[in-house]
User: Fold RAE2 geranylgeranyltransferase from Agelaius phoeniceus.
Amino acid sequence: YESSTFAEFLQTRKLTPSLQHFILHSIAMVAETDSSTLEGLQATKKFLQCLGRYGNTPFLFPLYGQGEIPQCFCRLCAVFGGIYCLRHAVRCLVLDRASGRCKAVVDHFGQRISANYFIVEDSYLSESTCTNVCYRQISRAVLITDQSVLNTDSEQQVSILTVPPLEPGSAAVRVIELCSSTMTCMKDTYLVHLTCPSTQTAREDLEPVVQKLFNLNTEKETENEELEKPRVLWAVYFNMRDSSGVEKSSYAGLPSNVYVCSGPDSALGNDCAVKQAETIFREMFPAEEFCPPPPNPEDIIYVEDEIEPEESGLNNSPETKPETSAEESSSEGGAAVTKEE
Assistant:
């Protein structure tokens, strides 16, 4: 069944249509037409392995939202000696003329920071660098509502819902509803995210699902059926590009030691980001362990000796203009590239 889709595989397992539907959309949570049998089985295995670890569901959600995960990584990185330059924008890359590799960056203050590798998120690259890149698109909607779509006694829960395609050829829509106890919205309100791969504009892709689940009528006098639905207090629809499947070779003129990370994708969780980080790490440091567990605080030894500026890769003096033999070029919306002997 390696060449079959997961939906076709489930049809051979003597399962009822309802059970097939439940496994596909509520356990594996994979696309009905695009996901292979192996992808579906791996997603099902992951779901089952996560059950009962921290509660009755396999899901965890960080308080204050997903922005806490990068902060957690920053703290972990700092424990291992990571240095952060806050409020510094990169103005240009300094390339070695002989090897073509990036050997330093210059920030908007003119400060030069030496580097063996440079990692950048896709949206920071110039238009000329991304000319040959073919991006997928994601349709998103963010709503603020007055009550939960899940009618239970508890008003404080995180709800995840997969809405199967309403029409053939359209994509399933994932709905995540957050309550005020997640510290992402005000009391007595709910924050709802709807996401799916784009086929049209975000409004055209997602509004049919919003109309099915929520009351869009702002007037108080509505029919009894609409009164039972959560009322939308505020809504925004937008499309964003998905760079998670872009190969490095698609970018034009990147030095060999410059790596590109993708932005958010349409999947649930952070599997793509973690896999991408591990891939880049292993290319740079093949002999090192990826993301080792943090040490016990009692085992950390603090060394008070100051690091020389040359050792840390930081140079506090403003960047001087390159010599007349150096070539410098800039691209629209991106950083300039300076070549040195």
